[in-house]
Design goal:
The structure holds 2 protein chains of 2 kinds. Chain A is an all-alpha fold. Helices cover 77% and strands 0% of the residues of chain A. Chain A has one domain. In chain A, helix 1 crosses helix 3 and helix 4 packs parallel to helix 7. Chain B has 2 domains: 219 residues, 3-Layer(aba) Sandwich (Rossmann fold); 60 residues, Alpha-Beta Plaits, CATH 3.30.70. The chains are: A mainly alpha, B alpha/beta.
Chain lengths: 260, 303
């Protein structure tokens, strides 16, 4: 681990993360403010179960359903996942392609320490985003007239942070393992989106119901944190996935040639 | 100061190879660079200079062979080696958003133990701009930052990939002075270039790399001895290049109108006497250019 590397990596991405975080907060306040007038009008959408599943139940009549469908199921994980993936691929493969790693690794820092420091930086960015979601939900729910406990809001932010760690670690493993930035972000994004689709569709067909257990998304939202609080098994799985993928990033990066 | 452990050479490569396929890479490099030496590593772009340096830094791993730096194995001892050497990569890249100062601070932190006054004196010497973001700096000004980071911890061994590229003549001068100073202190410099004129003034020995193979290692003095001489002879009438080509020692004759440029080794006697049979308007010696030696090794040495 190298604090210098973590610090500079976070610093170079902080502006973007804070901006995205403020955006999240603003959107959630607006979404919350719309609930009293719009939510009841929409009510529970009469849509096929597959669509309802993808939309997190599509029950817009309750504030929990409203935030689940508007924020928790798509918007928040999309923004957070995108930032984690682009961040993790940029600070590994991106810096390698930009030839900056060649200079950094001419200094007395081991490759494992470098990757761990980068992983920590990505995790900190994810925490900033999860914190923004937490603040945004508190303000948004208040703007919508209340109705979700602070505990459940916190549960969602925690679950989301772990989801961000895991998707970030996915991109980190691809980025550190291949040194190809677009491949890393592309592959990680594809896996994340596939996971979202699988989580939505798999339960509809009993034969492939088990597929959802392969989806990171399931471990984030399967327990329905906004309604039921933290799902510890989900957190454990996401945490383990993060550790395994980070270890894979370290091992593969240590063994291969620097590309540029 | 400046010696590797137990008097070993500062750099010792044996059979060092990196095969990238289709003839690209580095093949069987055997090379020793001693303490307090400035070694110029020459070759055209793509001849394997950067590959060699990246192997020495353990940024890439050899296909076969090995290298020792400061008496340590280049792979196993990499961290300790990197602590004690300074490296300037070819095509230096820095964080564009950072200022020069922040970038140097960061690299100094990664190193640890950088004497600020040494850094500041290097900044003064090169006239580096530390306040502007790196994206606003010219190539030359970025290269200054690259040189400062390579020298700022006063390393025993410097590995510099194309250090002079992009530097204006005045800065080149400061760089040459700096090289002299550090070698007087017993430090070693291994630098690459694709043009000989850049290293001619600083290198004690040079090695010429061609298509991944080291074709010659010698002192500049010896290389000069085997240099071709060239005479440019302007005739009043038409001159026949074939007449000169058949002379002993003549390697090449280039005709341009009534002027022949004749490259030869050894004595000029035969060339001058043959020319004397014609009406000669002018004889101009072409500068004994080391670039010629260099080009000659590129072309003529069989692989």
């Amino acid at each position: 681990m190298s604090w210098s590397v973590t610090r500079i990596t976070v610093r170079l991405r902080l502006f973007g993360a804070v901006l995205a975080g403020l955006g999240l907060v603003a959107v959630m306040i607006v979404v919350g403010a719309l609930f009293p007038s719009v939510g009841h009008t929409i009510g529970k959408l009469d849509v096929p179960a597959s669509v309802a599943n993808l939309l997190g139940g599509a029950d817009y009549a309750t504030i929990t359903g409203w935030f689940r469908s508007e924020i928790a199921v798509i918007y928040a994980p999309l923004v957070l996942g995108a930032l984690a993936i682009t961040g993790a691929s940029a600070v590994t493969a991106g810096e390698e392609e930009d030839r900056i790693l060649a200079l950094v690794l001419a200094h007395p820092i081991g490759r494992s320490r470098l990757i761990l420091a980068k992983a920590l930086a990505v995790a900190l960015i994810v925490l900033i985003m999860a914190f923004a979601v937490w603040v945004g939900l508190i303000l948004g729910v208040a703007a919508g007239g209340g109705g979700i406990t602070l505990g459940h809001i916190t549960a969602l932010a925690v679950q989301l942070a772990f989801f961000g760690f895991a998707t970030g670690a996915l991109a980190l493993a691809f980025g550190a393992g291949t040194g190809r930035r677009s491949l890393a972000s592309g592959a990680a994004a594809a896996i994340a989106i596939l996971g979202w689709l699988v989580n939505g569709f798999a339960p509809l067909v009993s034969a492939i119901d088990w597929l959802r257990y392969l989806s990171l998304f399931y471990y984030y939202s399967g327990h329905d944190p906004l309604a039921r609080g933290v799902g510890v098994p989900g957190l454990i799985v996401l945490g383990l996935v993060t550790l395994v993928l980070t270890a894979a990033a370290v091992v593969t990066f240590d063994r291969r040639d620097l590309r540029a | 100061m400046g010696r590797g452990m137990s008097g070993e050479p500062m750099i010792a490569a044996s059979g060092l190879s990196k095969d990238y396929g289709s003839g690209r890479g580095l093949f069987g490099l055997d090379l020793e660079v001693g303490p307090a030496e400035v070694f110029g590593f020459l070759g055209p772009n793509g001849s394997g200079k950067s590959t060699t340096m990246r192997l020495l830094l353990a940024l890439i791993k050899p296909t076969s062979g090995s290298a020792r730096l400061l008496g340590l194995d280049s792979n196993k001892g990499s961290i300790e080696i990197r602590r004690r050497i300074g490296f300037l990569p070819g095509d230096l890249a820095l964080y564009p958003k950072l200022t020069g100062r922040d970038m140097l601070d960061y690299l100094a932190e990664l190193r640890g133990g950088v004497d600020r006054s040494v850094r500041d004196s290097l900044v003064d010497r090169f006239g580096a701009d530390l306040e502007r973001p790196i994206r606003e700096l010219s190539t030359g000004n970025r290269q200054k930052l690259g040189l400062i980071q390579a020298f700022m911890h006063e390393p025993e061994l410097l590995i510099l990939d194309e250090p002079i590229s992009g530097l204006d003549p005045l800065v080149q001068q400061s760089f040459h002075t700096l090289l002299r100073e550090v070698t007087e202190l017993g430090r070693t410099v291994f630098l690459s270039s694709h043009t000989l004129s850049e290293v001619e003034r600083v290198a004690d020995r040079v090695g010429i790399l061609r298509q991944g193979r080291l074709v010659v290692v010698d002192s500049l003095e010896n290389l000069r001895k085997v240099a071709l001489q060239r005479l440019e002879i302007e005739f009043a009438g038409r001159a026949d290049p074939a007449e000169f080509l058949s002379l002993p020692g003549v390697k090449a004759v280039h005709a341009s109108g009534r002027t022949l440029t004749i490259s030869f080794e050894g004595s000029a006697d035969a060339v001058v006497k043959t020319a004397a049979a014609h009406e000669v308007l002018a004889i101009r010696p072409r500068e004994d250019d080391l670039e010629d030696i260099f080009l000659r090794y590129y072309r003529e040495v069989p692989t």
